[in-house]
Amino acid sequence: MTPRFEPVIIGFLCGWCSYTGADLAGVARMQYPPNLRPIRVMCTGMVHPDLVMEAFSQGADGVLILGCHPGECHYLEGNTKALARAKVISLELEATGIYPERFEIQWISSAEASVFAELITRFTRNIQKLGPYRNIYIEAVQKCL
Ligand code: FES
How far is the CA of 37 from the centre of ligand 1 (A)? Predict the structure, then answer.
């Protein structure tokens, strides 16, 4: 029996909302896959597209950006900027041959622990269906070394 693929999922979580929602999910002992590696950020507006691409180049199988709902960003327009950047990220992923489905941006408030747990469960299952992300360019270079 082959072991089930357990993806590495990097999540950039806004500390004001989604990170707190994740914390609440933990405190409430909600069940969800343990594949998320959360990175707490002050606002989704500070997540540069290069950070997402770097996560993939360092071996992530999927990347999430989770922030405050529209109109609730503590820095007013951070999540609006993040949404605009998400479109750029999707284009970059396509251009580099990475399925755009490996990346998502979502809004989760500090009270939405169950939404957080459902999202992580769904996203993890989707990445498991896609399989591991293999950077064929890095593998080709490594073979030459
Ligand atoms: S403060 Fe949460 S997305 Fe800006």
Answer: 19
Full residue range of the structural domain in which residue 47 is found: 9-144
Contact residues for 47 (Cβ-Cβ < 8 A; gap 6+): 12, 41, 65, 82, 85
CA 69 – ligand 1 centroid, Å? 8
pLDDT of residue 144: 76
> Are the CB atoms for 67 and 115 separated by under 8 Å?
no
Looking from the CA of 15 toward its CB, the CA atoms found within 13 Å total 7
CATH number of the domain encompassing residue 112: 3.40.50
2 belongs to a structural domain:
no
CA distance 35 to 124: 7
The atom of ligand 1 lying closest to the CA of 43 is: 4
Number of domains the chain is built from: 1
Note the pLDDT of residue 3.
74
* Site residues for ligand 1, CB cut-off 6 Å: 14, 16-17, 43-45, 67-68, 73-75, 78-79
| pTM for this model (two decimals) | 0.91
Atom index in ligand 1 nearest the CA of residue 79 equals 3
Residue ranges for the chain with pLDDT beneath 50: none
